[in-house]
Amino acid sequence: MSQIESIQGDNTGPDWNAAFIRGEGARYQQIVAFIERAVGEGSLNPGDRLPPQRNLARQLGVDLTTVTRAFTEAKRRNLIEARGALGTFVAAPKVELAQMVDLSMNVPPPPAGVDFHDLLQQGLSQVLLRADAHLLMTYQLGGGSKADRAAGAMWLKPMLESVSPQQLIACPGAQAALAALILTLTQPGEAIVAEPLTYPGLRAAAEQLGRRVVTVAADDEGMQPDALEAACREHGARVVYLNPTIQNPTTLTMPAHRRRDIALAAQKCGAWIIEDDPYWLLNSNAPPPVAHFAPGQVYYIATLSKCLSPGLRTAYIRLPDARSQAGVLAALRSFALMSTPLSTALVTQWIHDGSAARLLAGIRTEALARRELARQLLSSVDQAPPSGIHVWHRLPSYWTSMALTQAARAEDLRVTSSDAFYSGPTPPNAIRISLGGVEERGHLAAALKKLAELLVRRPQMPREIVV
Questions:
Q1: What structural domains and CATH numbers belong to the chain?
Q2: What is the pTM of this model?
Q3: Percent composition of the chain: helix, strand, coil (DSSP 3-state, to 5)
Q4: Model confidence over 82-116: pLDDT tens digits?
Q5: Is residue 20 predicted with pLDDT exceeding 90?
Q6: Which end of the chain has less neighbouring CB within 10 Å, N or C?
Q7: What's the CA gap between 223 and 194, in Å, rounded?
Q8: CA gap 224, 269 in Å, rounded
Q9: Which of the residue ranges 87-101, 108-122, 293-307, 374-388 has the most confident prediction, judged by mean pLDDT?
Q10: What is the DSSP string of 83-120?
Q11: Whole-angstrom distance, CA of residue 244 vs CA of residue 228
């Protein structure tokens, strides 16, 4: 048997020579990613024997320690298992068969080609070298330091071009930012205008704060400007809520001309716009935000929870002008005195030293691969955009969204029914599937295959027990 045959096995096995892709991170990480990808695609199956480490190192042109480190990481992820003198084999699925697979929580996936542990360790080391530890562990004024706001201005530059740090507030997450703006811009009992399918956190905050959400007609381009004007007149609404880029849950991205028309309609009504834009940086072709067309009318929220990590608990509000800062800060301090100084300092360090950009690039790469996986395995997402961390899956007529959600739970899968997002009597017959919460891409593939099998089965009618 030749050397290559001893490494690749037969012609149906994976092509190990395709393991390395320029710019995709450390080589040991690429080997792990290749194994995971091969398992997900079926070119490696449970029980398949992997090449000896020395042979693989020779074939790939790397040193033995690189392959050893890759195999160690792959074992940690339960992708492979060692069987002593017999060698190393692809492992059978273990935990996922017994635990619920969560496809309901919208979180970014693990970044491709980035060692998150190393990034976190290096970032915290730099923070502790540059900052006073006592200040990181005590009360601080809300809104962020000068350095935090400068970092926020850097982060928002791709979306809004020129941003003054004096117009920025650092917040402990987008939900806190949203609640603070509702308190600032509305009075109890007032209406907030939104699309029929909208982020559940808006409704939750409005209900807790004694406001009401009224929905207006939307089409394939998003909220309709004439419907917005009519709702403002009818309900006296002074605030409009928008999530215009890779909208949650529909994945719709509002085109530039509709954003401009919505901005003009809000200006005509004298209404403020809260533009909640967590996914803009995940869309390589996103139009300019609504804030670009009406900077003096829009409160723009950008959170890092959906494009970097929810554990950072950091979001930025870009204010229409610096004069509105005092009111928003006062509202924010009424329930969240400050952002966590340590995590905010880490975000600031990462933005300034480029780590945040590398992390974002890795997440975009992984999100793209997961969207493609969903497109291959779930037929109804063929026309979905290639970016984002969730898909909106319309169901066949024999399934209702609630019935499918319950049936999926019985199969140890958790998805989100359309009624979680919809205000009205008859929600669309669809579910949202989040792609980032499953750590390993191979496990995500297995979960999506199981969901696809469930979707083609007709629901079983309950049978009475006869004794």
A1: 3-92 (1.10.10.10), 101-112+361-456 (3.90.1150.10), 139-353 (3.40.640.10)
A2: 0.82
A3: 50, 15, 40
A4: 988 889 999 987 644 447 899 999 999 999 989 88
A5: no
A6: C
A7: 8
A8: 14
A9: 293-307
A10: -GGG-EEEPPP-GGGTS-EE-SS--PPPPTT--HHHHH
A11: 15
